[in-house]
Amino acid sequence: MDARAALLEIASLLERERASRYRSKAFRTAAAAIDGLTQAQLRDPALGSRPGIGDTSLTVIRQAVDGRVPEYLADLRERYAPETSALRKLLRGDLHSHSDWSDGQTPIDAMAAAAVALGHEYLALTDHSPRLRVANGLSPERLRSQLPVVRGFGTGSFTLLTGIEVDILEDGALDQEPDLLAELDIVVASAHSLLRMDGPAMTRRLVAAASDPHTDVLGHVTGRLVGGDRGTRPPSEFEPRPVFDACAAHGVAVEINSRPERQDPPDELVALALEAGCLFSIDSDAHAPGQLSLIDYGAARAEQLGVPAERIVTTWTLDRLREWTARTR
Ligand SMILES: [Zn+2]
Ligand SMILES: [Zn+2]
Q1: Span from the CA of 206 to the centroid of ligand 2 (angstroms)
Q2: pLDDT of residue 229 exceeding 70
Q3: 135 C-alpha to center of ligand 2: Å?
Q4: Of 30, 153, 194, 222, which one has the greatest count of Cβ atoms within 10 A?
Q5: Nearest alpha-carbon partner for 176 in 149, 203, 214, 211
Q6: How are strands ordered across the β-sheet holding 217-218?
């Protein structure tokens, strides 16, 4: 098999686990180091002395060049064999992802390439907003300079959508200039701070965010963490019904965040949102190319919880998605 493709697939599979960040990076570096080399050059005994190629990468390259599926890759494939639900096959894209412009691990082109490889018709790049300094949130100027870059990644059958994961401020206002939000294809609004504020205030905050004319998706609504290297965090306290009623009234999609450490919203809240008549968006919240495939978890949960495909905006065609996001622009 192609050695560079093997290295990139290994990196992608490792990225599904947050803890493997540095290991996955080593394989991406090795893939870049052999980019453009001929088969003869890949067979060169001195290959291992090139910068960026470690022992494990070298073994992978050798086995690939010999026409085998490298053992390291075969093991990972077995470990992460996706259980593809029927719903997963209906998903056409993803509305929540990050690049190294904020706290993602790779440049935009690697995210776009991975989305194309997954067969996505669209991916929204939604880097963080200014107040989230720990995540290198984008100032209005940086976001403006990102837009032409994002728009440059379209191919015939794939569109990279402009977007933002905008912080929901303490009073429910959104952390970016309204005119700039109006220009974006996708606005995901999420709370990242003051997650422990008292219930009534949190309810007002989320209702305000869901009622903002710029909001398309309400991101990881409870903020809970159920495991992983950041530990656990209980869900924020709020009254879910008014929040979901606001989403339904304004056509805002409730995000089903696919990250295994989030699984947000919890099952009972997905059921409430269904009852309230909400739309949903199954998103990866990927911070690395390999994490785009995490939507298989979100799809499996949504299917199990009986969310109809029709109510999931990421099963829609790009044209229909654009009509939806244009509803309040
Ligand atoms: Zn977030
Ligand atoms: Zn995010």
Answers
A1: 17
A2: yes
A3: 10
A4: 30
A5: 214
A6: 163-167, 186-190, 217-218, 253-257, 279-283
Question: What is the 130 CA–ligand 2 centroid distance (Å)?
Answer: 14
Condensed to tens digits (0 to 9), the pLDDT of residues 92-121 reads 999 999 999 999 999 999 999 999 999 999
Ligand in nearest proximity to the CA of 219: 1
Phi-psi region of 12 (alpha: psi -120 to 50; beta: other; left: phi over 0): alpha
Among the bound ligands, the one closest to the CA of 190: 1
CA distance 209 to 247: 9
Ligand nearest to the CA of 132: 1
Q: How far is the CA of 65 from the centre of ligand 2 (A)?
A: 38
Give 290 Cα–ligand 2 centroid separation in angstroms.
15
Distance 103 CA to ligand 1 centre (A): 10
Q: Do residues 38 and 46 lie in contact, with contact meaning Cβ atoms separated by under 8 Å? A: no
Exposed e or buried b per residue across 86-98, where buried means at least 16 C-beta atoms within 10 angstroms of its C-beta: ebbebbbbbbbbb
Tokens 């706290």 sit on residue? 103
- Kindly give the distance from the C-alpha atom of residue 116 to the centroid of ligand 2, in angstroms, as a whole number: 20
Is 278's pLDDT higher than 80? yes
pLDDT at 171 over 90: yes
Q: Please tell me the distance between residue 218's alpha carbon and the centre of ligand 1 in angstroms.
A: 10
Distance 29 CA to ligand 1 centre (A): 27
Residue 19 has pLDDT above 70, yes or no: no
Confidence of residue 80 (pLDDT cuts 50, 70, 90): confident
Q: How confident is the model at residue 65 (pLDDT cuts 50, 70, 90)?
A: very high
pTM attached to this predicted model:
0.89
Q: Give the pLDDT band of residue 18 (cuts 50, 70, 90).
A: low
Ligand nearest to the CA of 102: 2
> At 72, which amino acid appears?
Y
Residues 253-281: what's their mean pLDDT? 97
